[in-house]
Design brief:
The chain has 323 residues and is α/β, with parallel strands linked by helices. It contains eleven helices and 15 strands. It starts with 7 loop residues before the first strand and ends in an 8-residue tail after the last helix.
């Protein structure tokens, strides 16, 4: 069977949301001020990939409300294809709030019953051509967690991708506020078995598997079926494995203001460079530098760097980076 030509590099599936991020200043009454932006892990990754030069499209449902239109306008500005986005007049676009303190950043969500949570496997009829024409399908643990029907849709999309010769990338992105641990363990384990590239974090995998050593997490991920694994280690960089070799990508020393979308930035830039033909190690080095740049501003989307900015960091004298 002849596979379709790959006219896209990445299609991402999940929930995009409106973000309200606590800024560094307060008003005259010392109340926090929140800047309105955009978020949603796979949407962030899609935008990051587009800024890196990849050909990208997004698969989701949005409300027909004002916020849904704002997200459609965002993707148009960011060169992320949105003809695959379905509009749902019966449900709102999700939103979330980010606050900051000495312990880091904290999320509060208003996404119950959102349009994206109403994704159905039947929606694949609108998306199957885009998936088949893409090099990569990117999903996350959140794509699976927002509802049972969204989880079924994600698995249907992964199965279609594999049949069409499209590689599957999965970011663990564990959010236990969205689903019980036992269900998360079962679904993510199954999804890892369907992916070509798994992007876990140390914190997620400790919760999911009880493993705390990087080497053990890499081994577990390969044992489930993932051909390539990149374990994100925050400020310590990343550990990448292709099943035969492992390379450690060191962190960049930066002053982190807001790590809201750093992992998404890493994922999007990694997939962009893999789509462009980089090997896993070079793609990880690029993604790591991009993620280090992204934590130096507030919000999930605004600080995502352009390719020129990342190249300046990579071509600068070595000082060491963080993802």
């Amino acid at each position: 069977m002849t596979q379709p030509s790959k006219t896209l590099d990445i299609v991402a599936l999940g929930e995009a949301m409106v973000e309200f991020n606590q800024g560094p200043h307060s008003d005259a009454n010392d109340a926090p001020l929140y800047a309105q932006g955009f978020g949603g892990d796979t949407s962030n990754a899609a935008i990051a990939a587009a800024r890196a030069g990849a050909r990208v499209a997004y698969l989701t449902r949005l409300g027909t409300d004002r916020w849904g239109k704002c997200l459609m306008d965002l993707w148009q500005r960011e060169n992320v294809g949105s003809t695959t986005v379905l509009r749902d007049a019966q449900a709102p676009t999700g939103m979330y709030f980010v606050s900051h303190d000495a312990q880091g950043h904290h999320f509060s969500y208003a996404r119950a019953g959102s349009a994206a949570s109403r994704m159905q496997p039947q929606d694949l009829a609108h998306w199957q051509d885009a998936i088949a024409c893409s090099q990569w399908l990117h999903l996350s643990g959140i794509s699976l967690a927002i509802s049972a029907s969204a989880c079924d849709t994600a698995f249907a999309a992964m199965a279609h991708a594999r049949n069409a010769g499209t590689r599957v990338a999965l970011d663990s992105n564990l959010r236990l506020s969205l689903w019980p641990l036992a269900r998360a363990q079962a679904c993510i384990r199954q999804a890892v078995g369907l992916c070509d590239l798994f992007l876990p974090s140390l914190e997620d995998m400790s919760a999911l598997t009880g493993l705390t050593k990087a080497a053990d997490i890499i081994a577990w991920s390969h044992a489930q079926g993932a051909a390539q694994v990149v374990l994100k280690l925050g400020g310590d960089g990343a550990l990448a494995s292709d099943g035969k070799n492992q390379h450690r990508i060191p962190g960049h020393a930066v002053t982190a203001l807001d790590a809201t979308g750093a992992g998404d930035c890493f994922a999007g830039n990694l997939l962009a460079r893999l789509s462009a033909g980089d090997d896993l190690w070079a793609a990880c080095a690029y993604a790591n530098a991009a993620a280090a740049l992204s934590v130096q501003g507030f919000g999930a989307v605004g600080p995502l760097p352009s390719r020129d900015t990342v190249l300046k960091v990579l071509n600068a004298p070595s000082k060491g980076t963080a993802s």
